[in-house]
Amino acid sequence: MASDLEQLCSHINEKIGNIKRTLSLRNCGQEPTLKTILNKIGDEIIVVNELLNKLELEIQYQEQTNSSLKGKGLQSSRSISFSMLELFESLEEDYKDVEHLKENIPPHLPQVTVTQNFVNGSDLDPEEPVKVEEPAPTKKPPKEQRSIKEMPFITSDEFNGIPAYMKSRLTYCHINDVIKEINKAVVSKYKILHQPKKSMSSVARNLYHRFIDEETKETKGHYFVVEADIKEFTTLKVDKRFHGILNILRHCRRLSEVRGKGLTRYVIT
């Protein structure tokens, strides 16, 4: 009997406590400062409830998937096949890269030539006397030719570092093809400048005088060309695309510009 009364008293006290908490929460809800906080809490509770529902659905899906894999014994084979698929895709990408490089070898790269200069011992007749050739008289060594500075080609790393707005639709080969033609103009020009005047033709002599007139203090000791040289010695079109490539070459520090006397001189750096 005493235990029943104690349980009844504790139950009544618990209900009284719940009523007090409800009344205090009701009073808090009527205060404007706490009302906004309670509304936010309510919104967050709704969001958390939605997330819990999604989590529950995901757990159910994973449980169903695991049970089906266990039933068929495919869990281990699935991980192995996934790894094999990744390996196959990686090898396939590497193969495509190699084929692309093979089909797009830049034309300016030097060609590899193999020369074999040897005599097999079996080709010699042992009974035939060996003729000893007398050494040819030594000739005077030719005069050393002056080396002409040429512009180095753009590397793939430099090409990747060029801003996209500069490159537009230009490719790595387009830029290096223009470098090859500019070098052709530089070599042709300075071969004339290094040529003895007595051996010059009238055309070469006229070009020689033009080259001298175009030099300035800033270009002294440097190799440069102008647009007239590009038109004279190459098949390049001096158009908007050509000047865009010149901007790229300036960006990559392959050349600089020296202006004066109404001309723009492209100096090889």
From TrEMBL:
<dbReference type="GO" id="GO:0008017">
    <property type="term" value="F:microtubule binding"/>
</dbReference>
<dbReference type="GO" id="GO:0031110">
    <property type="term" value="P:regulation of microtubule polymerization or depolymerization"/>
</dbReference>
<dbReference type="GO" id="GO:0000280">
    <property type="term" value="P:nuclear division"/>
</dbReference>
<keyword id="KW-0493">Microtubule</keyword>
<keyword id="KW-0132">Cell division</keyword>
<protein>
    <recommendedName>
        <fullName>SKA complex subunit 1</fullName>
    </recommendedName>
</protein>
<keyword id="KW-0498">Mitosis</keyword>
<dbReference type="InterPro" id="IPR009829">
    <property type="entry name" value="SKA1"/>
</dbReference>
<keyword id="KW-0137">Centromere</keyword>
<keyword id="KW-0963">Cytoplasm</keyword>
<feature type="compositionally biased region" description="Basic and acidic residues">
    <location>
        <begin position="128"/>
        <end position="146"/>
    </location>
</feature>
<comment type="similarity">
    <text>Belongs to the SKA1 family.</text>
</comment>
<keyword id="KW-0175">Coiled coil</keyword>
<keyword id="KW-0995">Kinetochore</keyword>
<dbReference type="GO" id="GO:0000940">
    <property type="term" value="C:outer kinetochore"/>
</dbReference>
<dbReference type="GO" id="GO:0007059">
    <property type="term" value="P:chromosome segregation"/>
</dbReference>
<dbReference type="GO" id="GO:0072686">
    <property type="term" value="C:mitotic spindle"/>
</dbReference>
<dbReference type="Pfam" id="PF07160">
    <property type="entry name" value="SKA1"/>
</dbReference>
<keyword id="KW-0597">Phosphoprotein</keyword>
<comment type="subunit">
    <text>Component of the SKA complex, composed of SKA1, SKA2 and SKA3. The SKA complex is a homodimer organized around a central W-shaped coiled-coil structure, formed by the interacting domains of SKA1, SKA2, and SKA3, each end of the 'W' is extended further by the C-terminal microtubule-binding domains of SKA1 and SKA3; the complex forms extended structures on microtubules. Interacts (via SXLP motif) with MAPRE1 (via C-terminus); the interaction is direct and stabilizes the kinetochore-microtubule attachment of the SKA1 complex.</text>
</comment>
<dbReference type="GO" id="GO:0051301">
    <property type="term" value="P:cell division"/>
</dbReference>
<keyword id="KW-0131">Cell cycle</keyword>
<dbReference type="GO" id="GO:0005876">
    <property type="term" value="C:spindle microtubule"/>
</dbReference>
<keyword id="KW-0206">Cytoskeleton</keyword>
<dbReference type="InterPro" id="IPR042031">
    <property type="entry name" value="SKA1_MBD_sf"/>
</dbReference>
<dbReference type="GO" id="GO:0005813">
    <property type="term" value="C:centrosome"/>
</dbReference>
<dbReference type="GO" id="GO:0051656">
    <property type="term" value="P:establishment of organelle localization"/>
</dbReference>
<dbReference type="GO" id="GO:0051649">
    <property type="term" value="P:establishment of localization in cell"/>
</dbReference>
<dbReference type="GO" id="GO:0098813">
    <property type="term" value="P:nuclear chromosome segregation"/>
</dbReference>
<feature type="region of interest" description="Disordered">
    <location>
        <begin position="120"/>
        <end position="146"/>
    </location>
</feature>
<keyword id="KW-0158">Chromosome</keyword>
<dbReference type="GO" id="GO:0000278">
    <property type="term" value="P:mitotic cell cycle"/>
</dbReference>
